[in-house]
Amino acid sequence: MAVVSSVATQPNLQQTITSTLRTNPNFALSNIRVVVKDGEVELYGQAQTGFERALAQKFLENMDGVKIIRNKISVI
Q1: pTM for the predicted model, two decimal places
Q2: Nearest to residue 36, comparing CAs of 73, 6, 9?
Q3: I need a surface site. Which of 17, 44, 49, 67 has the fewest CB within 10 A?
């Protein structure tokens, strides 16, 4: 779990995160599911490598509105 400080919020945070992860050419993530509640983000899905799993989280750490990231992406 990563704790990230951010004061800004976005009403479409879940959609923004999902789009960011699905359209980024650095990822081959599959079955991505994002759950957001009060700035707490849970990531679910599958990654090819541990590096890819960690990179998905890193991309979100500085995103406005994200307070905590729980990375539950599994490596296959």
Answers
A1: 0.79
A2: 9
A3: 49
